């Protein structure tokens, strides 16, 4: 088994309200700030910065004010000049880059944990934009062993860092904690509990890692994003002509085989999955994706091998 | 004395409307109404005008509950008589237009029946909402629908509470009925929820056609849940919530809530118990749109309403 020494993670940021109506993160951040006020800076074993990423959207309980903030963190958007007509979220993304970055620099925060909810039945899904960050993948493996009352899955995209458009790409290591199903604008106690536990365990791992614990490597099963599928639409009006089929609804990460039902049209027909390749659907029927033309995404299941890691001693 | 003296003769229900999009992010009704505007075959019935109608088109366009103010609270006498001036909230203007088209509310020219289609994030299943315990036509229709849906259940919520009753879009009609189906997140269309709502409407229109054709409906009883009280979240001095609906109460719409049962869970893990003396039946538990209306859930009590036999009045 390969053995790798990696630098300690000096500072972590927990971000909630990147989408203002995804409430678990908003209330986890609020509760952490209350704990810090009550118990002082030593409340966590490592330094943690708590951030409400999109305060205006949180105030109005909307996903965003002008534009989706979680698409504003590409190199280009972070460096574009700000004018009076710049969208609110672009300005705010640049502020967050100053606070937690600069993206790509050695001064950037070591870890960002960005908290999100989805209307899809995805349990706890850890989303990371590359396949080669051993720290993040070890945290995912740790969460999978410690959290057993809900499915914990790892989803990887495959972007080079400069193209990565989301908040967690600002720090050296980063991932999204996505918990569902929860309607936007609602806080469910069971979902909040899962989110809080995942954040606490992440802090716990970082502390153990920094203190010298050896984390054994091994195989990590991940889902890698392949492509998106839109709803059937009327060719003229572009309005929906079908809903997610009841046999697909709520079955995120199931095995989708050729001939399986995908959509049930309003006139009573079933639209089936026609492709030969067996893939796994996720973000099935996410409210925020109707406007992006996405009914669900498809992923391939892979096994990644990660090395044993230990903190590098100075 | 013959029981035939207890038949209520009621006016034919000739004009019916189906409203979708009173809240622009409640997708079942919006989708059904848009579909029926394109092709009304499914909702056509003999001797009946059925008009599908999008009540709040701007909110539907934006996929938000409302633009300026909640349309489903805008049908008060004050709002409906507000003068036409610049700067009126969009929904106030719209309420006045709807009152012109389907009312005037309280007059003999008003539409006979309006079905107002809603979704909720609460686990209420299929629910029919009544505003009066003495509207025989509505009670008989609800009884018919429930029987037709069995073994699938359909709850009936009665909001006749003097303070908590509100001026709904459908209240413009002589016989207003709310259809509330959940759970469904705002902005999402779930196939099973959509089909449930579609089936309820099919049975409702069948009833109206039968009634209009002269069928007599015998006396019946309807089990209802009568609105009692609105329960808010615990809040701090700034008005922010300090607790969530407790996991034991979450999703338990229509189930008994007894004194001492868990009600809320604070963010730091403390349980707040229900202190009321009597058993209540909570509903609208954790509805997204009600955080801003200071409501975590509503309490109801169970009641059995009786309805006379009805038949269409002879001309």
From TrEMBL, chain A:
GO CC annotations on file: apical plasma membrane; cytosol
Pfam families to which the protein is assigned, alphabetical: AstE_AspA_cat, AstE_AspA_hybrid
Signal peptide: 1-20
Required cofactor(s): Zn(2+)
UniProt cofactor note: Binds 1 zinc ion per subunit.
Keyword Metal-binding tagged: yes
Entry's EC annotation: 3.5.1.114
Catalytic residues, chain numbering: 178 (proton donor/acceptor)
Residues annotated as binding Zn(2+): 19, 22, 116
Broad class of the protein's primary localization: membrane
InterPro entries named among the record's database cross-references: AspA/AstE_fam, Aspartoacylase, AstE_AspA_cat, Aste_AspA_hybrid_dom
Entries under NCBIfam families matching the protein: PRK02259.1
Family per record: Belongs to the AspA/AstE family. Aspartoacylase subfamily.
UniProt-recorded name of the protein: N-acyl-aromatic-L-amino acid amidohydrolase
Organism expressing this protein natively: Carassius auratus
Gene: LOC113044079
UniProtKB/TrEMBL annotation, chain B:
Positions bound to N-acetyl-L-aspartate: 65, 180, 290
Domain of life per record: Eukaryota
UniProt cofactor note: Binds 1 zinc ion per subunit.
Limits of the AstE/AspA barrel-sandwich hybrid domain: 221-300
Needed cofactors: Zn(2+)
Localization: Cytoplasm; Nucleus
The family this protein is said to belong to: Belongs to the AspA/AstE family. Aspartoacylase subfamily.
Listed name of the protein: Aspartoacylase
Protein species of origin: Carassius auratus (Goldfish)
Gene (name only): LOC113049733
